[in-house]
Amino acid sequence: MTQLTGFRKTSSLRIGNLPLLSIAMGPDPAKGEIRGHAKGVIAIGDMATGWVAIGGLARGGVALGGLSFGVVGFGGLSIAALAFGGLSIGIVALGGAAVGYYACGGAAFGPYVMSATTQDPEAVELFGRFLPWLRR
Q1: 114 half-sphere exposure, CB direction, 13 A CA radius
Q2: What are the distances in angstroms from CA 107 to CA 10, 44, 91?
Q3: Which end of the chain is more exposed for a tag (fewer CB within 10 A), N or C?
Q4: Could you give the 3-state DSSP secondary structure of residue 130?
Q5: Every domain of the chain and the residues it spans
Q6: Could you give phi then psi for residue 133, rounded to 5 degrees?
Q7: How many angstroms separate the CA atoms of 12 and 19, rounded?
């Protein structure tokens, strides 16, 4: 049986103590890792932590992933100040199910909501300003 190995790449250019680019995908049997954890300014991996993080689990300033945590998050489940996703939780949340101070989605919960059943004027103004196709 063939043993799977992952891919690891880290740039030599650094910003502070982080590499500019870090990529870590798949297992690394030599280090006993079953999944890759990329850490860098730009991080891409099974798990990614960086200013820009892209991965299954992404944590960073801008996080894109199945599960994302950040200032701006895009993902299946996104928890961020500005969250976009299937389930988004944040100050401003936009998604299938959205929970936030301002929330827009099929099911939206919060003080200012724009959903199929509720159209709070404050939410309509905010989301309509940046997403004009949402205005009715």
Answers
A1: 18
A2: 41, 31, 16
A3: N
A4: helix
A5: 7-134
A6: -70, -10
A7: 6
Sheet holding 112-114, edge to edge: 7-10, 21-25, 37-109, 112-114
User: What are the tens digits of pLDDT across the range 96-130?
Assistant: 999 999 999 999 999 999 998 999 999 999 998 88
Q: How far apart are CA 29 and CA 128, in angstroms?
A: 50
- Which residues in 1-136 belong to E strands, given as ranges? 7-10, 14-15, 18-19, 21-25, 37-109, 112-114
Per the CB < 8 A criterion, the answer to whether 21 and 9 are in contact is yes
Structure tokens at 46: 């099974």
pLDDT of residue 6: 87
Taking only the tens place, the pLDDT of each residue in 17-57 is 999 999 999 988 888 888 999 999 999 999 999 999 999 99
